Amino acid sequence: MKVTLKQIADIAGVSRGTVDRAIHNREGVNPQVRERILTVARSLGYTPNIAGKQLSARKLQLKLGMILPPRKQGFWEDVYQGLDAVREELSDYGVTVLCRPYEKYSAASQLALMDQLLDEGISGLAIAAVNDPAIQRQVNSLMESGIPVVVVNSELEHVTPLCYVGADYLFSGRTAAGILGLIARQAHVELLIFTGTNMMLSHTNRITGFLQELTNLRIDCHLIDICKLFDSAEMSDERLAYQAAAARLAQHPEVTAVFTAAGPVQIVARAIRDTGMRGRVTHLSFDLNTETLPGLQDGSITAVIGQESFKQGYQPIRILFDYLVNGIEPQDRRMILQNEIFIQQNASLRSPPAHEPQ
Fold it and tell me: Residue 57: its pLDDT value, please?
C-alpha cells in the first residue's frame, strides 16, 4: 500500500506541508522536527514519487508570472539569480515562468504588466509592487478569482496575498538605528537620510523604524533632512542621484551620520568619498552585493544589513508551484527573511545558496 504524506503527518504530529518541506529538504522546518519526520518516513518505507509529480505538473502546463524592477547590478541582480535558479528547477516539471520588468514605480505600468501576464494565461503571480490602492484592489481581485499572488520585497497595505516574501522593514530600520547607537554612544549625531521612492512601503518603513528606534534609544540626534534620490515614479538615474547626494552633503559639512534607506547606495558612498567625508561619517545602508562591497572595503560605507536577496527571487515562485501543483499552503503568510549585518571585517561576496533539492 502506498504511503502518503498525510499518513506521515498524522504519525509525526505535524501538517502535510511540513512533511513535504522536510522530505524535500526545504527551509522552514525545525531540525528536530525534520529528523522526526524523516524517521517516520523511513520506518513506513516512504519514497518520493518524483516522476509522478513531474508528469502531473506537465499535464497542467503551468505558467507563473513575476513582475520586478529591471535586472541590473546590485540587489535586483541577486533577486534575478534566485529567479533563474527556480525557473531552471521547475522546467523539469513543464513549468513556464514569465518575468516582466517595469520601468517606472507607477501603478499604471504595473497594472498593464499584470494584464499582459493574465492574457498569457498565468495561474499564479509574484510581484514587487508599489503600495497603491489600484494595485491593492487588483491583487485582492486576483486572489478572489482563484489566482494566487505572492507579494515580494515590499508589502502592500489592505491586501491578503497567498504569502509575502521579504524582510520586515520596520525591524530592518530599527536594526540600523541600533548600529548607529552602538557607534555614537553618547555623542551628538547630525543625521542625513537618503531614500528612493515613497511609493514602495519597504522604503518608508525602513525610515519609520529607524526614527522610532532612535527615539526609543534616546540617541542625541538632529535630523537634518530626508533627501529623495529620484522622482517617486522614476527609476534611479545615477547621475542625478549623485548630484543630489553630493550637493546635500556639501551643504551640510556638520553631518556625522548618513542613513541610505533605499536607492543607489554606491552613489551615496561615492559622494561621501568625493566630499572628503569618508572616515568621519558613519554611513549605514542595506544589502551586500557587487555595488556595496567596494564601499565597505574603502570605508565609505560603515555597515550594511542584508535581506537574503536570492531567496526573494527563488521562494515566491516555489511557493506558487507548491500551492498550485501539490496543494501545499505556505507555512506562514509572511516569510520574513533574515537581517544579517556586514561590516568591513566580515564582508565578502558569497555564491548564492544552492536551490533546494526536490
Answer: 54
For 139, residues 6+ apart whose C-beta sits below 8 A from its C-beta are 127, 129, 149, 151, 156, 159, 161
Mean pLDDT, residues 291-303 taken together: 95
Average pLDDT over every residue of 95-120: 94
Average pLDDT value for residue range 181-197? 93
Please give the grid coordinates belonging to residue 192.
542625513
**Structure letter (DSSP) for residue 144:** H
Interior/surface letters 134-164, b for 16+ CB within 10 angstroms, e for the rest: ebbebbbebbeeebbbbbbbbbbeebebbbb
| Calpha distance 156→3 (Å, rounded) | 40
Tens of pLDDT, residues 163-188: 999 999 999 999 999 999 999 988 99
Q: Where in the chain is the domain with CATH 3.40.50.2300?
A: 52-167+309-337, 169-306
Q: What is the CATH number of domain 169-306?
A: 3.40.50.2300
**CA–CA separation, 133 and 159 (whole Å):** 10
- Check the CA dihedral 108-156-72-192 and report its sign: positive
Which contiguous run of DSSP H or E holds residue 323? helix 309-326
Contacts of 97 (CB under 8 A, 6+ apart): 63, 64, 65, 66, 83, 86, 87, 90, 317
Architecture of domain 52-167+309-337: 3-Layer(aba) Sandwich (3.40)
Q: Is the pLDDT of residue 355 over 50?
A: no
> Is the distance from CB of 264 to CB of 238 less than 8 angstroms?
yes
Measuring CA to CA, how many Å separate 247 from each of 86, 198, 275, 338?
Answer: 43, 21, 9, 34
Contact call for residues 162 and 330 (beta carbons, < 8 A):
yes
Judge whether residue 210 has pLDDT over 50. Answer: yes
**pTM for the predicted model, two decimal places:** 0.81
